[in-house]
């Protein structure tokens, strides 16, 4: 491809209100600039783009402050001299397609024929040159990079069905409610420049829908690439799929950085990258793919790898063992310590004979809290965390500036109340009494369509409550009374959002997991044989009825055992949730209980005649009681009439009659 400026590229990096699931690592460095395998996430994208023939300009689009990317852009232009790299800041969050359309003049400058679009929160082999050649052959409006994943995880992503002969996409759905395909979108696209006409049509269609919506003030006016553009393109047969055989990882949580780090290191090792450390004489023992920054000091007796990245100015003592880990800048690890499946934050210190260990899991993007308990995951230490000698930290997330003087297991460790507030949903779910709730996906909360009408249900501090839930509330200068009211509104708003989320596909799956583990309790009825229960509301109107527990075997409801659970508003689960769950997951619906308790005396069933005799005796007693009550009422009425008759006779006697009587 000899024509210059034939391609451009756009990297979508989002903004500071995103990446909350990447905390505590994103508290100090934006996720796009977080180092993985010796390079920032966005640098891996740039390295792949630099290999595309005819591509000379890359536009990084987001709504971070310009100052966040200023120094990086300068360094990136020096690192990739063939690319002209710019940062374009959105004036507000416009959505993935909205940001592209907003900067269409900048993209069109130089008359490129096609442009790549890449999400920053993915790790991939990025076969961009092969995509470009494939795109030239079919000449559709868009080529989508695709990959196959496990069937049970497919619904978390955009799923597509394609024609295997032509690779034409026949159907595309973003995060479908039911299984469609195990072929998903990788978040990398190649568009013809003519796609701007299609984006304009999508924007016009969305505006038309909003005008017809009676709640138009609350709908999401952002334009989504996946929801608003790709599906119409598939329906008009203008979308094609290029399937990659290489690795693909999504980077949502802090723990997912470990799997991305391992994948990139393995790729570099396969490509014989000279940046990787080797097991040479006089140096530490190196196992597998390991990146060590030139300024790091590693004791020769230590053992490093596989899948380890060590940042600048790190000091590692004698006999240290590190495996499947990211060690960030200025970390000190004293002698005989062990770090496994962990990320060690900037300026942290690990004492001698200490052990920092996480758990290797298949899906690092799963929620970190279930039933108020932290699940098995990668261990994350935030910035400037100190672990004292002979201390074990296993399966924990530690926020910045924390000194750990004792051992901890499966906890979220905080340094102060302010830092805790940055994890509002985690804090809420971890609070005793809130074990019935599941974690609501961040994307669900940020999609304003899902919040339609809730501002009327939360009349006080609605926007502030939403900011608190999404960890974006600036609490500086707030009075304590105002903060308490916002906190109260945030709890109520989260409950209302929760009621809507639990009847979605993702919500049902999360609640089903809790149901299978009997986290809501078991039926107190003996003949239900410890059947698991589900929470249910008796009213969808808030503050009417508290939550009850529904047994699908006896089809009855019960009060929660704990008074804390008994005080939860039933509207936070709704009247439909348990029945919706069994409609979708009918294989988990137990058979209805037909067994009833049979009264016995000395092992013999009570005969029906005895039961009838007891009923007759009870009926006679009831009849006799009613007869006596009626007789008493009659006697009282008779006495009253006689008394009234005497009073009437006396009233007829005047003064003269009284004197006659005396005579």
UniProtKB/TrEMBL annotation:
The keyword Signal does not apply. It catalyses: alpha-D-mannose 1-phosphate + GTP + H(+) = GDP-alpha-D-mannose + diphosphate. GO terms for cellular component: protein kinase CK2 complex. Its EC number is 2.7.7.13. It holds the Pfam family CK_II_beta. Regulatory subunit of casein kinase II/CK2. As part of the kinase complex regulates the basal catalytic activity of the alpha subunit a constitutively active serine/threonine-protein kinase that phosphorylates a large number of substrates containing acidic residues C-terminal to the phosphorylated serine or threonine. This is mannose-1-phosphate guanylyltransferase. It comes from Parasitella parasitica.
